[in-house]
Amino acid sequence: MKNCRRFELSFHLGALLRGCREAKGLTQEDLAEKVGVTREAISMVEGGKRCRLETVWDLSQALDVRLSDLIRKTESLAGME
Q1: Are 64 and 34 in contact (CB under 8 A)?
Q2: Architecture, CATH, for domain 2-77
Q3: 3-state SS of the chain: helix, strand, coil percent to 5?
Q4: Residue that wins the pLDDT comparison between 18 and 79
């Protein structure tokens, strides 16, 4: 059950980050360049793969989104409020 919850959180976080990226009109390549990672890394995060908190922080900064807001929205979508 714990692994399912982690996947669910990663999935929702990835979807939120993708939505933020698209709202800014950025491609995965654009965002990858701003953060200093590969396009494949962005794809993996957006696809719900687990990633380091540092990476999420870097993405939130590049997208001008508060990390606390991302976490709150992710928890809400996963029914963890």
Answers
A1: no
A2: Orthogonal Bundle (1.10)
A3: 75, 0, 25
A4: 18
